[in-house]
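Why should sequence recovery work at all? Because a backbone constrains its sequence more than one might expect. Tight turns favour small or flexible residues, buried strands favour hydrophobic ones, and helices have their own preferences. The token representation captures these environments compactly. In the example below, the structure is given first.
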């Protein structure tokens, strides 16, 4: 199972995977760890990533860049209109007022949504990952800027679905960076000690994101975040480009901004100039050949000049950093270090501002480009059941305030409440209580603040269905659970109605309970159950895509809070159960005792919820998936066709030179002339009628060429390999001949082999020697322009047959010598020592056998015997 983290930037993307006990960055097919966030559409296919970068200028109107800012946006949004001014392609307002991108694909006009473009980029990253890992990729974690709204986060999930990916979590860039920083730190303070506060500054191509995180061993908590979505490295590039465009207009009388291609070329060169100025304080030249109207332009800029021009941008950066410090409520002494990531933090002036605000040198502990992707891969490993990761919990923050509105009586204003304030912990759930007689609607919105740069405040509408009054006409109590999930997305996760039972229903329910021998439930039991439902953060039942690492620590409050939402129809004094009851064991015991005395008066019903959020309907999503599938199939077809055409072209160029060089003596003059003409005709056909034909036509063309060229190549290879093959056969024959001679001389190594067996060896040697001599002579009489009489494979085959017969015979092992029967050990000793075994007569007239004296009697009780 793969564990993948994807950093989708406005300009470029990075892929990180958990493998080999660590995190690695995956390179694409160009061995580049960076993949540009570019999708280009052509007459035959689309091009994505590194290959599409060459199309930015040549196919500017059909090459989509900087589309991340367009996700889930309305066309009328001022940010979109500002972005539109810099884009080379056209935008169009769609029926739902969202943004569409006008393109030409397969010579047909088409309109693509930014979500579809993102899905195409994700598809490319998925393919690169699968090629690098050699396995299928499904699960991933995708990074987004911390300022992304609910709609933008849903758009990322939609794009991942179109690309066939299961996005386990949409993770904030700054949180991913802090996770990549903290999980490897071994010297973090313990949970009981004062946390270590780290500031992270991430400035990339299009935005500035900052955060302050508190680290303890095994956990991190985001204290504050602040960002500016409209300032980044590209703003510096455009500022320099505007300067030189004005200079060239005066110096060379050309208006670079009037045409797309020279304007894009100038921006690319200004980006290079900015990077050079970051490393050098001297004046750096800018030279562009044929920028416009065949005019070569030159210019110069020094770092000090650039810093003077960009001072308004630097002031905005300073404002964001001061706001972060103010929101964190930390003193400068409380900050341990300042970590910088992102390409634009390499600008010296940006580093100077950071040092000036926080009074600390900028630290580059992390990889400035790959830190986000690495953090996402770590988070994906935590969510994956197949990986063991060091326990590390993460508590994120909500960037904006979320309000909830609902309708009341006609003569009253709609009810409203602030459900989740700014910088609230994520993920988090709250339980709301309403009193209603019919279905009602909840409307979630953002609060307009100074840091909210969006035109649309709407999050979504959620209709609670199937609500009905109680049997006595009173309002029913409806409990609604709202949640900010691990993705940072607001949802109404569940709704239930507490229905009062009529007396007849109570009696029937009591009878049912008695029949099933189940204890009855009363209001207090229901209240106790409801209280115990309100679990603290670390015990709440979580969706499949959340883990304990996402859950905030349990401070003084619980993750699931209860709120009463009252109106004129609310019964007197009825309140939602408090979560404190679940914590008091004594109260629970008392409630259990009273339960047995009371009858059940309410029944809980789960209610259906109808959501209207920023997501395409299932039919539209299916259409997007089908479109993506067709495009992938067309890309594969064009790729295969291109490979087939390249194979023909490669064969033409290769053979044209070889038939007059190394293959010259292996082809007849007439055949060479004819083959050369065929190669020339094929080359002309490739650049004329055969420039764009079906794949099978290219295959047939290649087969036709190989009918003429392959025999020549075969004769050449045979002439090189044949001598070695004959030599090997000859050495094998000599080897077995030597063994045969040794056998005939009575060599002890082979005298155990039977004569009939050795005759087989002798016959086989004669047979193969004859075959070798005949075919060697025949081959020497055939010219090299003709096909060989005997091939190398045939020679190797004959060598193998020779070995198959002879080798088992000549390597036959000698039989073991027969063993003689064992002699009596005592006799052997006597014989060896030369002792006389004659009986010896004692003085008393008895005789004794000397050998018998040495053996004790078997029945002697003092004799010890070893038994095996």
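From this structural description, the recovered sequence reads:
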């Amino acid at each position: 199972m793969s564990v993948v983290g994807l950093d989708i930037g406005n300009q470029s993307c990075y892929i990180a995977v958990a493998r080999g006990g660590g995190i690695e960055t995956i390179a694409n097919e160009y061995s580049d760890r960076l993949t540009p966030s570019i999708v280009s559409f052509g007459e035959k296919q689309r091009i994505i990533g590194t290959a599409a970068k060459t199309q930015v200028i040549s196919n500017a109107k059909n090459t989509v860049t900087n589309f991340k800012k367009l996700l889930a946006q309305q066309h009328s949004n001022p940010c979109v209109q500002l972005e539109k001014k810099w884009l080379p392609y056209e935008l169009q307002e769609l029926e739902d007022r969202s943004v569409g991108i006008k393109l030409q694909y397969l010579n047909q006009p088409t309109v693509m949504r930014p979500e579809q473009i993102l899905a195409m980029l994700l598809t490319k990253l998925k393919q690169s990952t699968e090629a690098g890992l050699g396995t299928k990729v499904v699960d991933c974690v995708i990074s987004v800027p911390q300022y992304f709204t609910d709609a933008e986060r849903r758009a990322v999930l939609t794009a991942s679905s179109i690309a066939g990916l299961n996005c386990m979590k949409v993770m904030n860039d700054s949180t991913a960076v802090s996770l990549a920083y903290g999980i490897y730190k071994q010297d973090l303070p313990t949970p009981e000690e004062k946390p270590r506060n780290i500031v992270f500054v991430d400035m990339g191509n299009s935005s500035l994101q900052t955060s302050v995180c508190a680290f303890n061993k095994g956990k991190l908590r985001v204290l504050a975040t602040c960002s500016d979505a409209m300032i980044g490295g590209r703003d510096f590039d455009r500022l320099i480009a505007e300067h030189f465009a004005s200079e060239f207009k005066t110096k060379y009388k050309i208006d670079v901004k009037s045409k797309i291609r020279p304007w894009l070329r100038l921006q690319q060169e200004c980006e290079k100039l900015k990077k050079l100025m970051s490393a050098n304080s001297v004046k750096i030249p800018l030279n562009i050949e044929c920028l416009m109207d065949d005019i070569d332009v030159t210019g110069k800029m020094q770092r000090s000049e650039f810093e003077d021009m960009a001072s308004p941008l630097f002031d905005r950066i300073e404002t964001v950093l001061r706001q972060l410090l103010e929101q964190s409520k930390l003193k400068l002494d409380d900050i341990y270090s300042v970590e910088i990531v992102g390409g634009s933090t390499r600008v010296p002036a940006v580093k100077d501002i950071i040092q000036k605000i926080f009074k600390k040198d900028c630290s580059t502990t992390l990889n400035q480009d790959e830190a986000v992707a690495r953090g996402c891969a770590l988070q994906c490993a935590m969510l994956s059941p197949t990986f063991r990761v060091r326990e590390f919990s993460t508590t994120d923050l909500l960037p904006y305030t979320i309000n909830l509105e609902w309708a009341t009586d006609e003569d009253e204003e709609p009810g409203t409440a602030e459900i989740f304030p700014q910088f609230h912990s994520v993920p988090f759930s709250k339980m709301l209580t309403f009193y209603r007689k019919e279905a009602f609607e909840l409307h979630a919105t953002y609060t307009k603040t100074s840091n909210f740069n969006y035109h649309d405040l709407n999050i979504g509408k959620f209709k609670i269905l199937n609500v009905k009054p109680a049997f006595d006409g009173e309002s029913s109590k409806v409990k609604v659970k709202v949640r900010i999930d691990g993705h940072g997305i607001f949802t109404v996760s569940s709704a239930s109605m507490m229905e009062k039972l009529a007396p007849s229903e109570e009696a029937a329910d009591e009878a049912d309970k008695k029949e099933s021998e189940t204890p009855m439930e009363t209001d207090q039991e229901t209240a106790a159950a409801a209280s115990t439902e309100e679990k603290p953060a670390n015990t709440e039942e979580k969706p499949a895509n959340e883990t304990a690492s996402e859950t905030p620590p349990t401070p003084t409050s619980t993750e699931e809070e209860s709120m009463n939402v009252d109106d004129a129809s609310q019964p007197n004094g009825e309140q939602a159960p408090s979560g404190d009851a679940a914590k008091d064991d004594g109260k629970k015991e008392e409630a259990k005792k009273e339960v047995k005395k009371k009858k059940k008066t309410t029944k809980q019903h789960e209610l259906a919820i109808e959501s209207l959020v920023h997501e395409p309907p299932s039919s539209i999503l299916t259409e997007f998936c089908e479109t993506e599938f067709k495009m992938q199939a067309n890309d594969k077809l064009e790729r295969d066709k291109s490979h087939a055409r390249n194979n023909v072209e490669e064969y033409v160029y290769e053979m044209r030179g070889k038939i007059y060089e190394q293959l010259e003596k292996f082809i007849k003059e007439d055949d060479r002339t004819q083959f050369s003409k065929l190669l020339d005709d094929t080359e002309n056909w490739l650049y004329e009628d055969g420039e764009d034909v079906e794949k099978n036509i290219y295959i047939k063309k290649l087969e036709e060429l190989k009918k003429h060229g392959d025999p020549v190549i075969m004769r050449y290879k045979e002439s090189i390999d044949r001598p070695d093959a004959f030599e090997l056969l000859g050495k094998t024959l000599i080897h077995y001949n030597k063994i045969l001679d040794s056998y005939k001389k009575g060599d002890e190594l082979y005298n155990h082999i039977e004569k009939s067996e050795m005759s087989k060896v002798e016959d086989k040697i004669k047979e193969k020697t004859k075959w070798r001599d005949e075919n060697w002579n025949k081959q020497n009489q055939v010219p090299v322009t003709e096909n060989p009489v005997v091939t190398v494979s045939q020679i190797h085959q004959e060598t193998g047959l020779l070995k198959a017969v002879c080798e088992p015979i000549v390597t036959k092992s000698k039989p073991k010598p027969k063993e003689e029967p064992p002699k009596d050990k005592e006799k052997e000793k006597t014989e060896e020592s030369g002792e006389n075994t004659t009986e010896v007569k004692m003085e008393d007239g008895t005789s004794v056998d000397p050998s018998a004296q040495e053996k004790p009697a078997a029945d002697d009780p003092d004799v010890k015997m070893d038994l095996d």
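A few observations help interpret the result. The two ends are 58 Å apart (CA to CA).
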